[in-house]
Amino acid sequence: MTRHFIATILTLITLTTTAQNKMRPVDELINKTDSGWTLVKDWIKSAKNKVEILAVDTVKAKDALYKTQVTTRSPMGAVVYMTGGLLIDDGWIRILGSGNAKLGRTLPDWNKGKSFKEFGEIPSFLLIADDAVGGLYLLNGGGLGKDFGKIYYFSPDNLEYESLDITYTEFLQFCFNNDLDKFYKGNRWTKWRDEVSKLDGDKVFSFYPFLWTKEGKDINKNTRKAVSVEEQYSLNLDMRKQLGLDK
């Protein structure tokens, strides 16, 4: 796992140094001899959870890789360049890649205006994935804590950023093999799979009462509707401010 941790750190260092210099051309980011996709593909083949690899558009993939400025030697670069994204557990978790009809957002475009203003800037974090109930997975670039290179989960049931103490590579393994029913205990309702499997990858379920309220703790009693992930993202950040959670 040491090699994978180093790859994550190198990814973030690449993002930082590139932002301080000229953006690297896409051909320099495509590693033709040691692609991280070989590893990721093998992990997917042996995954305990259902993983759907979304078809990739080569032109969009090159654009997304260029904007992200990571190499395909890293698992993140491989996912961006080789997939339109990954859907885990019938779409419950959506790992961002270079976009697809089922998941229109690309990793760099989704982050623009959130973790950085212009492509090539140093991101304090990267939004790398999200889930059907509005939870977010973020790679810490220094803006979330001192654990540089680790993944955080923004939980919709408390509006807090929780460190998972895992790297991007370990996050993929988490998605592929972890007991997601256990991790999401209390946030999955009866027959959730039928609804989530039909949900657009750019939408999430919004609940009322809110999941973070005392009244909203029993998810089976809440009303829910599909809204754009952008709308839910903005709402969650506004709620954090109103509750005084942002210091």
Strands, helices and their partners?
Blueprint: H1 2-20, H2 26-29, H3 37-45, E1 51-53, H4 58-68, H5 75-82, E2 85-88, E3 93-96, H6 107-111, E4 125-131, E5 136-140, E6 151-155, E7 160-163, H7 168-177, H8 180-183, H9 192-196, E8 203-208, E9 223-228, H10 229-242
Antiparallel strand pairs: 1-2, 2-3, 3-4, 4-5, 5-6, 6-7, 8-9
What brief labels describe this structure?
247 residues, 18% strand, alpha+beta, globular, 36% helix
Commentary on this structure:
The chain has 247 residues and is of the alpha+beta class. The protein has ten helices and nine strands. The strands form two sheets. It has a seven-stranded antiparallel β-sheet with strand order 1-2-3-4-5-6-7. Helix 4 (58-68) runs antiparallel to helix 5. The mean pLDDT is 92.
Share in helix: 25-40%
Provide the residue-averaged pLDDT.
92
Strand content: 15-25%
User: Over the alpha carbons, how many angstroms does the gyration radius reach?
Assistant: 17 Å
Provide a count of the helices.
10
Q: N-to-C terminal Cα separation, in Å?
A: 34 Å
Main β-sheet, in a few words? 7 strands, antiparallel
Summarize the structure.
The protein is built from ten helices and nine strands. The protein has helices at 2-20, 26-29, 37-45, 58-68, 75-82, 107-111, 168-177, 180-183, 192-196, 229-242; strands at residues 51-53, 85-88, 93-96, 125-131, 136-140, 151-155, 160-163, 203-208, 223-228. The protein has a seven-stranded antiparallel beta sheet. Strands 8-9 form a two-stranded antiparallel sheet.
